[in-house]
Amino acid sequence: MTTRPILNINMTQQPRYQTSRSITKMSPNIWDIIVLLIVFGILAALAWGASRMALPYSVGESIQITLDPWALPGYAISSVLRMFIAMFFSLLVTFTIAPLAAKNRHAEKFLLPLIDVLQSIPVLGMLSITVVGFISLFPNSLLGPECAAVFAIFTSQVWNMILSLYQSLRTVPHDLQEVCKMYHLSGWQKFWKVEIPHGMQALIWNTMVSMSAGWFFVVLSEAIEVSKQQITLPGLGSYIYVAMREANLVAQCYAIIAMLIVILLYDQLIFRPLLSWAEKFKAEIDDDAEVYESWFLNMLTKTRLVRTIEFLFSIVGDWFINGYKKFIPRKSIELSTQTQTAITETTILVWNVFLIAGIALAAIALVVLIQKEIALSEVLHVFYLGFLTALKVFTLIIIASIIWIPVGVWVGLRPKVTSYVQPLIQILAAFPANLFYPIVVYMIIEYNLNHNIWTMPLMILGTQWYILFNVISGTARIPKDVRLAAKNFGVKGTLWWRKIVLPGIFPNYITGAMAAAGGCWNASIVAEYVEWGDQTIISTGIGQYITLYTQEGDFPRIALGIGVMCIYVLFFTRILWQRLYQFASERFTMDT
User: Are 578 and 101 within 8 A, CB to CB?
Assistant: First the structure.
């Protein structure tokens, strides 16, 4: 269906007074002025932050970070700018990789384990590898460390978003697929008109939690410490780092207040309007259900400029989705089935050869790097450390699932509650684990607690919200007619959970649990090596091993630690996550 403009006036046939009236309707009103002031204010702040990203800088030069609370607004702007640049590239990669993994089973076999491995590689490990390259790429400029920080934040955001869109594309209801066939939609049209709208709400939810994940690792990304070299970029993360190093609780409180304000601002100005806008993509119409509302979106709808821009975007969007047909010849060359099969088999063979060769070369490079300096006994010890961390991750995912699945289902069935819980979860998910160091250190030292057990909560603090967000999203997508049918037939208790809820939320839960597990592996570098002032608490695990040798700049041992972690993650991906994803796509696709 083609969108038509609401107002279509032929100026040559209308009286002159109607021309003036139409011009009046297109002229700015008071809401246009208010919105423009807000937008220009945001753009001016971001432009100021961008201008500070390319200042002259030499490696070894000290960047002074003050704990004066009046410096926090500037630091907050710099951190937000880095996070939104990372978010832009995260969305770009998501819309490229997720469809490829969902629609090509050969690419899926490679990309899904790769994503799981990459999301588990510690941010500190990423920085130790990439910061030197970025500094070489932008010599004598702060842009090198800035790009390294943005890349580190990007790696903490993108994988969860890819998994969310991948899961949505794999679980498109059969009736929507039949609609695509009935209307003879091409693959390109099906993707933008059916598949993306189907996964839009889940993607927005996971984008929010990914944004919070960026805050979780903001300390590591802005206070870069590799090879005994310290680079502190102006931002909230470096502010928190200095406050921790000086054991300044007052400064940490200031940082918490600043973070709360920033999160509430971009929640109200960006994510809340997006959730309200995404209501139109719901698969069913329910007049009794609560819908997301946004005061900022309501303000935008009152402006005449935004309505004009929306109309122009609808024209561009229609050409983007449907206009390509004009450039496709009517009579295309059709290959025989035998030729298509031969091309496909050859492509698969070449792909597998390159894949095996790449894995072999990577393994050889890793062995060559570590064999000269690391004994076999130490390699076995690192595998033992990886096993201990894997045991912690597995235990934490089970505990988090037991806690948050019932809570997420309860919230997801109550949209009005969801609208209040969502910003609260964003705030909780954004808190860096470092802010809880004083409590953890005090409790462990004061009560002589076991380091390995009582530092474990730090691993799950920022990643448990992946499970909660996805369970809420999955519960909200259970069709109303299914819930009403269950109510009419008196389906209650365990039967209601087994037949209605768990099948409805299972695909979303797998996405959240997989992302949470990868985040736990990543967070082990924060949880297993805790520093607060002069106190250092070390727990046994592979995260502690990587953190220790990253600070010393021992690249062979950094590579060994990351390599062993990747092996464990690949193992769990093959035996657990891929099978669960396949099971979810085959058995638990909730038709609307």
Answer: no
Helix/strand/coil for 223? strand
Nearest alpha carbon to residue 143 among 61, 49, 84, 55:
55
| Buried/exposed 8-24: b ≥16 CB within 10 Å, e otherwise | eeeeeeeeeeeeeeeee
For 260, how many CA atoms within 13 A lie in the half-sphere containing its CB?
Answer: 7
6 vs 2: CA distance, rounded Å = 12
pLDDT digits (tens, 9 = 90+) for 164-189: 888 888 878 878 888 888 888 877 88
Does 445 have pLDDT greater than 50? yes
336 vs 518: CA distance, rounded Å = 44
Q: Got the DSSP string for 134-148?
A: HHHHSTTBTHHHHHH
- Residue bearing tokens 């050969």: 106
51 near 233, Cβ under 8 Å?
no
DSSP string, 464-496: HHHHHHHHHHHHHTS-HHHHHHHHHTT--HHHH
- Please give the single-letter amino acid code of residue 167: Q
The span from the CA of 127 to the CA of 223, in Å, is 10
DSSP per residue, 88-128: HHHHHHHHHHHHHHHH-HHHHHHHHHHHHHHHHS-HHHHHH
Both tokens of residue 400? 């988090």
Q: Cα separation of 29 and 350, whole Å?
A: 61
Q: What is the pLDDT of residue 10?
A: 41
Taking residue 164's Cβ as centre, other Cβ atoms within 10 Å add up to 29
Helix (H) or strand (E) holding 1: none
Residues 275, 292 contacting (CB under 8 angstroms): yes
Q: Which residue has the tokens 């269950």?
A: 486
Are the C-beta atoms of 397 and 461 separated by less than 8 Å? no
d(CA 358, CA 435): 41
pTM here? 0.74
pLDDT at position 401 is 93
| C-alpha–C-alpha distance, residues 571 and 519, integer Å | 16
Least confident of 19-33, 211-225, 467-481: 19-33
- Which among 166, 149, 150 is positioned nearest to 114, based on CA atoms? 166
Residue 497 is given by DSSP the state: I
- 553 three-state secondary structure: coil
Q: Can you say whether the dihedral through the CA atoms of 159, 396, 456, 113 is positive or negative?
A: negative
DSSP string, 437-449: HHHHHHHHHHHT-
